[in-house]
Design a protein that fits this description.
The first copy, chain A, is an alpha/beta fold. Chain A is 29% helix and 23% strand.
């Protein structure tokens, strides 16, 4: 009897999972996969419409699996597959597993792209892949028509279909869905696609089959706002865009915006309106680029520093303007996007990542989510440099974080010839230690300034200024070539030796380029601004190292636009960051934006980040008495006392000779910007 | 050892629960109650502020409890009690159980008003008491101040306090609360009262102690909207008001409003705006009457027929205008009131009771909740007469429901001398079977028209028309006195005998009063209108009786304004409702409004009504072939074939003599209005 049954069964082996089972001949491959718990996606519920359940037959003998597999072990290309192939394109060798039935033993490969919980490949610079666990999913259903003899509401019959076909129960439904449900059901002739959030709430209903929904991951910086539009079910980044934060008109830096709200009744609300308008503009822009409607955006995740976080939520940031810097909330905020005035799908959901502390925002939380220092063995330092630097230090044993007021110098502001990173901006610099002559490269041109054809190649853009990463290199090279000493003082005596050193008021300046109309020069004030910024950054790092009782770090990750463009060696030369084996110092890319994208695509990551912000120990630089001390010591280049064993292997540091002028900075304390 | 412990303990017995236990001397009475599970309310958490935990000492010997109790078994009046008594008034003999400690054995009585889950006494006419299980509760907490050394958001510290003091965990928080939290905490000096919905969501935060919140129970009728404002924590009705449904300008009856929405693009939305504006007006009116702010309204429950239900929710009722009469939803709708455009507290919650079927609305569901026929032993008929009658029949074994298009005649419309129930309207009538002379009473006067002083007493109001209940009595009395026969035909031959019978076109009329300027008369058309309405009602009832396979009912409840004023005997004489022992026929009062109030005050009732609408079997009169047959039979007065054993004991029914004229109504079918 059992032998007879076996004859009528076929062995199916799924790769790469290795899951296997015997099923009666005629069983659809998708059904076999489901009963074995093999992860195959489907929006249409096995109707051959959505094409998400594609599989590939592995042909040949598989001794390991004890099976000989061939495409003849399956039913021939079916009618739904032909229809789908005509409509959408079906790669050769691919089958729709819902419309393909077992005729014999077979090995079936499930490609990544057909898995629900697949991984999204991140850029090379980035640490790990994103697991895809979308919170919003689509379900195609056929709904029973109304029947007078057994009256029941359209919503109930929709929910019955979702339970019957997708085992979804206990759903709630947004009012707007209820308001449009009846015409949509009738337009779709009782076949509709339903978007369900978190297996709990019906967010949208569309007539017929809809197979893509989108989400927006946004990093709201004080200066710029950047957004990535992703296809939620595949994780693909479909479009990206950025724009200036229009709040700049209320104040360049964060503190001046808090002041604005304190001095002007309704000021905070004005800034809220401004940032929300920008978010809506950005949504329209990326949607246009992706050729979709903003109404197709069903989710948005938002990260930002605490002030931006509060202003997005329309919470007056006044408490963040003074001690004890109390956040309104340090928890994630999960709510309908419309409550933030965002014009996406009417029921789109917003998830605002949690802040860490009054000065350490949701952007830093997102960086942690992208970098996961809590999984690292090596003692890892993560630095996200902006007008404030967010600093995270630790590993799987313990994590500490703080924020340090570096000021806007690293962003090219407050530097006499500073400018945004744009074509024509100097980004790479070398200074000959003998002649003191510089050579440089500008954005938009692959040639160095001393190579033939440079003038021709940069004719269009010109050489317009120095961007953030350029300023680091110039000051570091000025130090390495002896133009400035450890205290940052430009050596006026050198003006006798080089026309690059010129008087500038009561101090001197270094002329890096003459762009025809004006000299681009680095003044003593420029050097001071960078010293103040880097000292604040280093002091913050040092506080965290003290908190952990360590005297060196094993790995450094530089996050943000700044971190992406900088030559890390120069950051160490300048003493922005502590000495470290340069092999283990690299860019983390736009980690805050990546964190926002992870929170968008991987539902489980939200619990992770909510936990991370809880376990990380917060250090408040403003009340740490040793911050000032570390700050003063860090004014020297690279540092008054720290040693640089790793760096010394790579560059030759000038001999240390601190002068009395160092005292001029004593007692100054950077203002939180 | 145990004896020593006993000496230091005191026995406390709580009445009426009888719960008892021994506690160490010095234990606060409230704390003893809590550990015994005795239900005593408290908003302030035992701080002697809110006064909700009042108890009374029972003095004397209680052999049954084995205890001698006296006020000396408790600590003397405490400082908090004195403060409370100065501020709020504390009745003599009452103690605040939080501020009173055990000194010896004692019997403590917990008055109803100090219980959380107390019952609210309903009016005599109404069936049962309302259990108080408010969904929104208030919690007074003291919140830890922010600390830079251990940064945490204000919301987290609020939630910690709610967990520490009230064991509330896993709360979510409305955005608006987050937006106001920081100033409120500081204004209240870290002492605030929190409103929590369903032990899940923080709806509001106020500085200091707040000890009352309010809710609104609203019955949205096609013609009038009525609201009761209740104190949610006590169940007390604080104010009531009603106003005309402004949708009347789009159509008198429901079907003309559906037509309006079909004929006019945006017509449904216009009606939605109109009804929501009326709800906001009503909220302002009752709040003013109760001397509170509309922002103190934290909940609203809404009932209405299916069209009103859909229009309140901004759902186009077009599908309800034709077969198969599909509801958008037959489930309860639970959402923030602001999503309905209601301007109450910004986070007020709305609960819209579920509809039963396309023609049987949330008002009928509310009637079921108020009447609970599912608990009855007796086979109970519930009738709510409006322009449509909602009919429910059954008992604990089985329930059926339908709606029947009675038309507006019972509301005094379509009756030549009909008017609203207002001073001057005839409401009671007797006709002398010999002289055919009428006597009557009008609203606003206790005298009958043939009593001395009637003319004087009604001089101010006059006799202006006949109201809904008056019309029932007149037609029934006309039948009992032989003015009309079983077919409803006014006997013109009687004009020879009485000047009350006068020609009126090709038929006759009965003059009931001459108010000086015009004769108030009942025309043949008036009789027909009532016959059509009552036949539709009876036919609906008959359908339900057939569905249950019964030929009589044991109990009749008449709901709504109509049911409250009618003399039930005449409703049976007229054949509106089937024969029944008159002892078991009575008014259910405004049962729909009561149902809305129950849903407001008793959270558990919501599951009850949601279940009731599921288990009740729906009968669609529009597709029941026997409806027409029952309708024609019911045109006769009281009925063509039914027998009236109970009624015959109370009145003498004229001998049956049907005439050919009955045929004139055959083939007419009432239009759903």
């Amino acid at each position: 009897m059992s032998a007879v049954l076996d004859l009528a069964d076929a062995l199916i082996v799924f790769t790469p999972s290795g899951k296997r089972g015997r099923f009666p001949l005629g069983t659809p491959v998708l059904q076999a996969a489901r009963s074995l718990g093999v992860d195959i996606d489907s929006v249409c519920g096995g109707r051959g419409l959505c094409g998400r359940c594609q599989v590939v037959v592995s042909e040949g003998e598989f001794a390991k699996h004890g099976v000989t597999s061939s495409s003849e072990s399956l039913t021939p290309i079916s009618e739904p597959e032909q229809r789908f192939a005509r409509r959408m394109k079906l790669e050769p060798g691919r089958r729709l597993s819902c419309s393909t039935k077992l005729l014999g033993d077979v090995v079936i490969d499930v490609p990544q792209s057909s898995q629900v919980h697949r991984q999204v490949v991140r850029k090379a610079a980035e640490a790990r892949e994103i697991d895809l666990n979308p919170l919003v999913r689509l379900y195609y259903v056929e709904v029973r028509e109304p029947d007078m003899h057994e009256p029941s509401g359209d919503l109930r019959r929709l929910e019955e279909a979702l339970e019957r076909e997708w085992q979804l129960t206990g759903l709630s439904c947004e009012l707007q869905v209820l308001q449009t449900l009846q015409p949509v059901l009738r337009k779709g002739e009782w076949k509709v696609t339903v978007a369900v959030h978190d297996e709990k709430t019906i967010l949208g209903v569309w007539p017929g089959l809809k197979d893509a929904v989108y989400g927006l991951a946004v990093d709201v910086g004080s200066t710029t706002i950047a957004a990535h539009l992703c296809e939620i079910l595949t994780g693909e980044v479909v479009a990206s865009a950025g724009l200036m934060n229009p709040q700049i008109r209320f104040g360049e830096d964060l503190m001046s915006r808090v002041s604005y709200s304190m001095m002007n009744p309704g000021g905070a609300a004005q800034m809220t309106i401004a940032v929300r308008e920008a978010l809506n503009e950005l949504a329209i822009e990326v949607a246009r680029e992706a050729n979709i409607a903003v109404e197709d955006l069903l989710e948005i995740t938002l990260v930002g520093n605490p002030i931006m976080h509060h202003l997005i939520l329309d919470i007056d940031p006044v408490e963040l303007g003074g001690a004890p810097f109390a956040l309104s909330t340090d928890m994630a905020v999960n709510l309908p996007a419309r409550e933030l005035g965002l014009k996406l799908h009417p029921n789109a959901r917003a998830y605002v990542l949690p802040c860490i502390a009054g000065h350490v925002g949701a952007d830093a939380a997102a960086v942690m989510l992208a970098e996961r220092p809590d999984l690292a063995d090596k003692l890892t330092l993560i630095v996200d440099v902006g007008t404030n630097a967010e600093i995270i230090l630790g590993n799987k044993d313990r994590l500490v974080a703080c924020s340090s007021p570096t000021g806007p110098a690293f962003e090219g502001a407050q530097i006499s010839c500073g400018q945004r990173a744009a074509p024509g901006a100097i980004e790479r610099v070398r200074i000959d230690p003998v002649t003191l002559e510089p050579r440089f490269r500008v954005i938009g041109c692959e040639l160095w300034s001393d190579e033939p054809g440079f003038a021709e190649a940069t004719k269009k853009t010109g050489v317009t200024g120095v961007c953030g990463s350029g300023i680091i290199e110039i000051i570091a090279e000025m130090y390495l070539s002896g133009v400035i000493n450890q205290d940052g003082v430009i050596d006026g005596d050198l003006s006798a030796r080089s026309s690059r050193i010129v008087p500038n008021g009561r101090t001197f300046a270094y002329v890096i380029a003459d762009n025809g109309t004006v000299d681009l020069k680095i003044t003593q004030n420029d050097v001071r601004a960078i010293q103040l910024g880097k000292a604040a950054l280093y002091a913050g790092i040092k506080l965290l190292m003290e908190r952990l009782g360590v005297d060196h770090v094993e790995r450094i990750r530089l996050a943000g636009a700044f971190g992406s463009h900088i030559d890390v060696k120069y950051a160490v030369v300048l003493g922005m960051i502590p000495d470290c084996d340069l092999e283990f110092v690299d860019s983390a890319g736009n980690a805050a934006g990546t964190g926002a994208r992870i929170a968008l695509l991987d539902a489980t990551s939200r619990a992770t980040v909510e936990n991370l912000v809880r376990i990380v120990e917060k250090v408040e630089t403003a009340i740490e008495p040793r911050f000032q001390e570390h700050f003063v010591d860090a004014m020297a280049i690279p540092h008054k006392t720290a040693s640089y064993p790793h760096l010394s292997k790579v560059v030759t540091l000038p001999a240390s000779k601190p002068s009395a002028s160092q005292n001029e900075t004593r007692g100054r304390r950077p203002r939180r910007a």
